[in-house]
Amino acid sequence: MNSTINQGAAPGPHGFFSKEATIARPGFSRWMVPPAALAVHLCIGQAYAFSVFNAPLTKIVGITQSAPDDWSLTTLGWIFSLAIVFLGLSAAFAGKWLEKVGPRRTMFTAACCFGGGFLVSALGVYLHQIVLLYLGYGVIGGIGLGLGYVSPVSTLIRWFPDRRGMATGMAIMGFGGGAMIAAPGSVALMNHFKSATSVGVAETFVVLGVLYFISMTIGALAIRIPPADWKPAGWTPPATANKMITKNHVHIDQALKTPQFYLLWLVLFLNVTAGIGVLG
């Protein structure tokens, strides 16, 4: 099946990060979108591997063992908690902004927040100021997580209306795979930078912040959205309606007024709470 764009809009006088500038031109293959999405999700999946930093962060002062001035695990636990809270908040409010400005600007903003959050956290470790870790990884990084999560997923679904399950699966695979890569990678970096005066966390944060910013920026630059009314060649929407899928568009402002929205939200809340509780 031909999955390239046969018809597209001509470039207009729009900014590079505008939504109009990301509309795919003729000849663009939709199979270029999954790698761009993975370039982002493999990075933000690091959040699930943050626990590898917990033990080293309790020895910033003592180096070999915790000193009286070192942070406790209870204090450090708020870093991950804040990141997850701001992931949810930013993802909730980013939907409308994403539709307005497009995925490229949203993904680049995510790259700046997530990569920048690591740099602020590195400064917090160097200065031994826990507030900077809360601000850096928790708040700024958490916003990057949320923005980086929703952008590729929504874009993939638009490119693969005939394979929605596969599209979302590829994105979630990247999010989970990011932790699988980040955990051993972070440990290896800390061991590399470890010295008699440092546990290597600050240096690792700097390296990860730069690498994640570069990878996520590449994904943002490569992402494209299909032209209006585009559909894969040879594909037609199913004639038989699925009772579980509505064909009517419900605006978010109206959805918030329905009990179904809050029931679905409650189901997701309980599901995510159980998963994050185990990870945290």
UniProtKB/TrEMBL annotation:
The chain crosses the membrane at residues 35-55, 75-95, 107-128, 134-160, 172-193, 205-223, 261-279. Residues 32-280 form the Major facilitator superfamily (MFS) profile domain. GO terms for molecular function: transmembrane transporter activity. InterPro entries: MFS, MFS_dom, MFS_trans_sf, Proton-linked_MCT. It comes from the Bacteria. Keywords: Membrane, Transmembrane, Transmembrane helix. Pfam families: MFS_1. The keyword Glycoprotein does not apply. PANTHER family: MAJOR FACILITATOR SUPERFAMILY (MFS) PROFILE DOMAIN-CONTAINING PROTEIN-RELATED (PTHR11360:SF317), MONOCARBOXYLATE TRANSPORTER (PTHR11360). This is Permease of the major facilitator superfamily.
